Amino acid sequence: MHPWIENVALQAPTTPITVLPPDPATTVVWRMTHAGESDVLIAGPRTRAAYHTSKDLPVCLRLRIRPGRALPLLGAAADELVDRTVPLSDLTGSSANALAGRLVTYKDEPEQAVEVLGDFLLGRLPRRLPDRLELVGEAAAELASEAAPRTVGETAQRLGVSERYLRRVFREAVGVSPKHFARITRVRTVIAHARRSWSDAAACAGYTDQSHLIADFRSLMRVTPEAYATGRVPLSTC
Fold first, then answer.
1. Ranges of the chain with pLDDT below 50
2. Which of 21, 56, 140, 148 is the most buried (most CB within 10 A)?
3. 224 and 193, same structural domain?
4. Residue 151: DSSP 8-state
5. 34 in a structural domain
């Protein structure tokens, strides 16, 4: 699974508010209610943060697909899923409903549920994978690098393609432009280093200065770093 799935998270509400940072990845979500209802959803790339009142769900399992690999697994380009959450059945038909029913058996065995979900997704892979799969993966890795993040132009040059071509295939495969991907990744890095000072977090994420961090943070997280740190966030009404 690791070439296709970046990470797996079993979520449980630990705070009254669920924070969903911007995310350039497409995610497979399996959830159950206390009434025993089960569904599998596809959450497309999220361009800005969302904040919701936490729901008490006995199971909420999230499989984060590696950037650029949604199309072979799901049969839908990531740019068609941006800022949308759709039932898996919309993409794969009734087989997704049967999958959701089968997963109920593994409500207390998340590792088994991950295996069942993975087998379902991998079973849908076409015999021939897109030629640009590795190109997009390499570009995403470079643009997300904390050690030495590259510009889009530098990344295209190193990969031996034009910047225009890279932008086109990257947006289709990942869902957002390379530049927006890099911005989202930097903000997510800042959140990961939130216990440090904002200046340290800015340096870790590759920002040139703290003002640059604050501008990006406000744009993508919809609040300032200070408001975010103190829990003053705009709750969704839906």
1. none
2. 140
3. yes
4. P
5. yes
